[in-house]
Amino acid sequence: MSDIDDVKMDFLLMGAPAGLRFNPALPGGLHFLDPISRVEIKLDVEGSQENLFRPLVCRAYLSIYVRPSVVRFVSSLLVGRFESYEDMPISLPYVKYGATQIDANGNIAKGFGVPFEMYPPQVQSVCDTVEASLLQTVERFLRFLRWQQNIDGPHFLFEGSPSLYWRIEGDAYRHVGLRVQNSEGASPAGIEWKHDDQADLETLWLDQAADEPLAHELLREAKNIAEHSPRSSFLVATSALEVGTKAYVAHLRPETAWLLAELPAPPIHKMLRTYIPDLHTAQGTPLTYWDKLRPLFKRVEANATTRNKLTHTGRVSISPELLESHIQDISDILYLFDVLKGHEWAKHNLSHSLRSALGWPASRRTRHRVSLRVGGI
């Protein structure tokens, strides 16, 4: 192999499209070639031939030319040897789980998958570039397919994350090593049934006019689609805030219900910051702690600007951190409305930061922050 000329490598991205079926079946599957990127996409059936509506598997192929050093490392990896390189993040022998996974000569123990982070930076860069190109192309294709043919389906495109494979010419495709995965979020909410919980629900149950507000339903929908459709989740969450705020104003002043339903409402952050406390003051129930919520309302105002940019251009990126913060802020506001309606139990559903800012007692709920790490060196 020359150290000058680039060498061709083949890559494959494979995953199961969510909710897609052939109708009723395409004997040869579906084939599409992107004339620009040269990504080749194939959709074919998976499973029993007796099931005409069986699930599909999507494969996207791309061949590129890479440096000989990349091919040498991958070629060695595919035959069970780890080729040393300068500034490796590990030293050999590599011991993990109490056993030698890679010996001093670079021989990889049977069953050990070399993590992505152990690859040379040049190899990682090639994989990242190819995976991004394949994923962008195949997602665009599936979205166009669903749109063009009015195909029903969930918000997400794949059942799980598609996997990346590679091969050197003449070899079968092999799985690219998995990169470390970190995730952090609230622990799952489980049902609690302490004496206070039962008493609160019984009181709520006896109120024949009580019903879960639409705003809470909308926010739950936003949470359910947050992972796969962050922009849609952001818009639905913002709608939940608007619905909840209008509903609370109508609760305070029933005569405004028709006006709020028929006319565009003023900016929500202004209603929260000024209009609602003014209504309370006029009714003789001033909200003495409302000024402590100004940082919250300032975030609402900033997120309203983001929502407007998103709806007008469709090109705004919503980070997981921004979405989580936005949903939590809206949840706090909606439960504050519940508190103001006389539901004392709603205080326990407020975030720790908001309860602390208001000087309210700790919640009796027992959710925690959970950090998970999978894979890696």
Output the keywords.
single chain; 377 residues; alpha+beta; 2 domains; six-stranded antiparallel beta sheet; two-stranded antiparallel sheet; 10 helices; 41% helix; elongated
Characterization of the model:
The protein folds into 2 domains: 7-179, no CATH class; 192-365. Helices cover 41% and strands 15% of the residues. The protein contains 10 helices and 10 strands. It has helices at residues 68-78, 121-148, 195-206, 214-224, 230-252, 257-262, 268-282, 294-313, 320-340, 352-358, and strands at residues 7-15, 30-33, 40-45, 56-66, 94-96, 99-102, 163-168, 174-175, 181-186, 369-374. The strands form 3 sheets. Strands 2-3-4-1-7-8 form a 6-stranded antiparallel β-sheet, covered by helices on one side. It starts with 6 loop residues before the first strand and ends with a strand. The mean pLDDT is 89.
